[in-house]
């Protein structure tokens, strides 16, 4: 049986008195590619932060690589949501990727030759080695997203967590990046958990899916049922998006849609 690399048991978490996610029971096996979808404010980012140990749950247990998340995140590459950045900030693409190496040791230190090699390899993996010396503010949004993925890969992660990596990226670039993630998952056996609003991408690229709206509807299967979607969104959502038909949606069972 494949090793569980992430495991959450009876996890409740939120901010102050605002409980956001409820009774989450969820595990991810090595080599899986999990897509997490759900409505705005449903708690998707919160779930990722719990896995990273950035938020301590009110109750329940979280393990990453069999360790408490603060220790397990040593093995996790993290691609956060694109945030506003100062385009004039004088930092080069390679410097951004090198930052991924800092997470490996708690102490600040200067970069070693190995760090520099790993950063260059990561840039090569995302096809951007040719712009290593460009200022980060001068590249496109799609390239920047690939740089952030390279920063996560520079850490040599076992697990990659991505929070809507392709929000506001054009469809062609999205396809390239999803293809890259699929390849990393298949050829480098990196386990991936990706939050996305892109149901079409979920249907084409991931191996298992979950819907999160305070509660997680996840059955460790390749199929996403209309029942799961309706339960999470509390309203019918058309799964057949972006012209990608029936990849994950089995024939809708009338009984299930009524549930
Ligand atoms: N730092 C914070 N402090 C207080 N409340 C927060 C904080 N971050 C998120 N929340 C609240 O927690 C709830 C869930 O937010 P979260 O970002 O996890 O949802 P999400 O599913 O990722 O949403 P989206 O799809 O819009 O990114 C929201 O009501 C949000 O306002």
TrEMBL record:
Keywords: ATP-binding, Nucleotide-binding, Transport. Coiled coil: none annotated. InterPro entries: AAA+_ATPase, ABC_transporter-like_ATP-bd, Metal_Ion_Import_ABC, P-loop_NTPase. Residues 6-245 form the ABC transporter domain. This is ABC transporter related protein. It comes from the Bacteria. Belongs to the ABC transporter superfamily. The keyword Nucleotide-binding applies. GO terms for molecular function: ATP binding; ATP hydrolysis activity.
């Amino acid at each position: 049986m494949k090793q569980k690399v992430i495991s959450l048991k009876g996890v409740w978490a939120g901010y102050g008195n605002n409980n956001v996610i409820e009774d989450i029971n969820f595990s991810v096996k090595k080599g899986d590619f999990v897509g997490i979808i759900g409505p705005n404010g449903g708690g998707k980012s919160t779930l990722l932060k719990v896995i990273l140990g950035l938020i301590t749950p009110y109750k329940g247990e979280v393990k990453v690589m069999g360790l408490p998340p603060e220790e397990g995140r040593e093995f996790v590459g993290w691609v956060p949501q694109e945030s506003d950045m100062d385009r004039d900030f004088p930092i080069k693409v390679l410097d951004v990727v090198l930052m991924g190496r800092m997470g490996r040791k708690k102490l600040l230190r200067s970069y070693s030759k190995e760090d520099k090699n790993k950063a260059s390899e990561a840039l090569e993996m995302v096809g951007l080695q040719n712009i290593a010396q460009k200022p980060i503010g001068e590249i496109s949004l799609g390239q920047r997203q690939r740089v952030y993925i390279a920063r996560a890969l520079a850490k040599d992660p076992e697990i990659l967590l991505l929070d809507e990596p392709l929000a506001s990226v054009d469809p062609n670039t999205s396809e390239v990046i999803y293809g890259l993630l699929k390849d990393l998952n298949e050829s480098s056996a990196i386990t991936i958990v990706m939050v996305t609003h892109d149901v079409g991408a979920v249907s084409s690229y991931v191996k298992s899916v979950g819907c999160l709206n305070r509660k997680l509807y996840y059955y460790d299967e390749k199929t996403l049922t209309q029942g799961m979607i309706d339960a999470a969104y509390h309203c019918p959502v058309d799964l057949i998006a972006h012209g990608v038909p029936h990849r994950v949606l089995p024939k809708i069972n009338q009984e299930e849609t009524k549930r």
